[in-house]
Amino acid sequence: MPRSEEANIHIKDDRQKQILSSALKVFIHKGFAAAKISDIATEAGMSYGLMYHYFQSKEEIYAELVRDAVDSSKCVIEQVRADDMEPIDKMRTLVARIFKSVGQDQSIGYYFVLMMEAMTSGMYPAQAIEHRHGSERPFDMLVYVIKQGQHKGQIAQGDPVQLVQTFFSAILGLASLKVSGTIETMPDPEILMRIFQPASLTTT
Amino acid sequence: MPRSEEANIHIKDDRQKQILSSALKVFIHKGFAAAKISDIATEAGMSYGLMYHYFQSKEEIYAELVRDAVDSSKCVIEQVRADDMEPIDKMRTLVARIFKSVGQDQSIGYYFVLMMEAMTSGMYPAQAIEHRHGSERPFDMLVYVIKQGQHKGQIAQGDPVQLVQTFFSAILGLASLKVSGTIETMPDPEILMRIFQPASLTTT
DNA sequence: GTCTATAAATCGATAGAC
DNA sequence: GTCTATCGATTTATAGAC
């Protein structure tokens, strides 16, 4: 026997990860429609014919990545939510973690850009992206933290949903512009954090 | 003579506007790569062959729209800058105007989404989009307003460029998510305005 | 498991009739 | 000025050799 069955499985698993990793990089830079299978193959250092040995189509690769992106986001949010700290500091930690990762390969930042592309390209309805097997949406997880912060007076009053929308949009926008090279470095996270700031006392 | 020369010019001008209007709608919903010429033709209610009577290529239509978008943005910013009001209120007016227009056809909101797509798709380098015949970039125009606001104590201290980056990203992100249907309504503009808010006095 | 050659489909762009 | 028919290039996806 030239190769053990076990080794083959290992290769298979390895290749799949390699393809997904390369595909993520290509997709966030060119978008789904403009990304060619050959681009992904080149990035992964293999022939494009081999791609179809591991995935049925370009869409399947994309769908798999979007799933990973949602799971990864939920994971990060779940971590900060479970942390023992004030609600406002949970948000601060989340922003810091995301900002720091943007620009690093295979990070949560890349996943955020992919989700942005998935949502705006109109390929996936928003529900399909966020709603998975009845589990809580990343979005709602944040709304809950915001409400806690508002109750404690750490976060400005007003519709928590709108607050999260603005927060998310800014992060997605910044991550996308960073990856595209439109902006060179991420701004100070504290700027964004100010959207949570309760109204200042009137200056007397 | 069945038709006057003048009437032909009128038709030509009319058709071009019609095509650009339809193309804008298609491009912001599907992106450049996924948008088909036939999509635009259908939206405009004409055959796709006729498109090439008015434009040389899909790229030319897109490029024309991006130019319009930049010009339109500059126009809006120029208006608020010229207005006789406090710097912070200039920003407030700008946000209000943009937020209100998002979701309306052929508005500045559509143009913002197009610029976002143009920047993130990597088709155009950021310079090509913002830099035009030596005139001031929309971005720099805002930095100037911010500096004035900081000098007057109306706007938080810190790098004005980062402030504008965060501001722009949030607007672009919100506009994109609104057009894609990810969010149903635009949030309260005052949430975003808080990123300008100077540090509140310590609650005593 | 991996590659190359090829089929099949899509789409941008053109030509020519009306 | 407008439409339909067609070309040509690109790309997804498959088949078969090694």
Topology:
2 copies of one chain form a homodimer.
Chain A: H1 5-34, H2 37-44, H3 48-54, H4 58-82, H5 87-101, H6 108-120, H7 126-130, H8 138-151, H9 160-179, H10 189-193
Helix pairs in contact in A: 1-2, 1-4, 1-6, 4-5, 4-6, 4-8, 5-8, 6-9, 8-9
Chain A binds a DNA duplex (18 and 18 nucleotides) through helix 1 and helix 3.
Describe the structure.
The structure is a homodimer. With about 200 residues, the first copy, chain A, is mostly helical. Chain A has helices at about 5-35, 35-45, 50-55, 60-80, 85-100, 110-120, 125-130, 140-150, 160-180, 190-195. Chain A folds into 2 domains: about 1-55, Homeodomain-like (Arc Repressor Mutant, subunit A); about 65-200, Tetracycline Repressor, domain 2. In chain A, helix 4 (about 60-80) crosses helix 6 and helix 4 runs parallel beside helix 8 (about 140-150). Chain A binds a DNA duplex (18 and 18 nucleotides) through helix 1 and helix 3.
